[in-house]
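Progress report, Aim 2. The chain analyzed during this reporting quarter is listed below.
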Amino acid sequence: MRRRAFLAAACAAPFAARAASESFARGVLWRVTHKGAASHVFGTIHDADARLARLPAAVDEAFAPAKSLMLEFVPDPYSAGRFLDAALYEDGRTLEQEIGAEDFDRVAQMLAPAGLPRELVNRLKPWGALVNLRSPRAPDAATLDDQLVSRARARRLPLFQIEAVEEQIFTFDECPMATQVALLRHSVRHRDELLELEERTLQAYLARDLAGIARLRAEFAARHPEIAAHQAVMEKRVVADRSVVMAYRMQRELRRGGAFVALGALHLYGRKGVLALLEQDGYRAARVY
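Predicted structure tokens for the chain:
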């Protein structure tokens, strides 16, 4: 089971005031400088859509002279297995018990195309099911992150990750059960609307419109106030809290210069995004693409 990006849609949050974040409203590639050292920060989207099959030319050009690559997370067989283990109940509880038979049937049907048998789905914790609820990914499909890792390894570049697998597990596993259940139930009951949001989010990303992505999320949240409190909880854990950690840890490579840092585009946007946080620490960010 791979970690999915569907939470970005399922955890829509209020739209930050545009005036407070106008500098980072558009653009997915930024040149970040500090005391003469220059690096690049690239906002990706964790999707394997055919429209993302090739890195944009501007990203290619910026990556060519890079001395290192840093990602949110670099998957390996151990991490993939550890993440799966953490997403499963080991104490006899079942997903059906948590969300009810009707919603469980919906989840099992939705995850069947991804190759997850009903018995395995029933062992998933609610967050484990939630992060897998999206369009099935082709076995040979590559995300932007995958493409960058492949190129870095071909060039034998130093490869770093911002988060360890245990930290990613903690983000979801320590989320209140009531929030996990509410968001999962809402996701399966509004599946078509969320898939449409996923598509529109991808279109906004291809237009390099970070403010547009935030606006789509805010509009979705406004249509479903019944889960606003749960959305806010997950939003803080998945986006805001992790952005603070990312902005701090990437500075190790940024200070050296020549680093290429890739992380989810959602972490770039807004006054609490990594670019704004880096500027607070004396860095300067200039949009490249």
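Residues 1-21 have pLDDT under 50 and may be disordered. The chain has one domain: 7-287. These observations will guide the mutagenesis work planned for the next reporting period.
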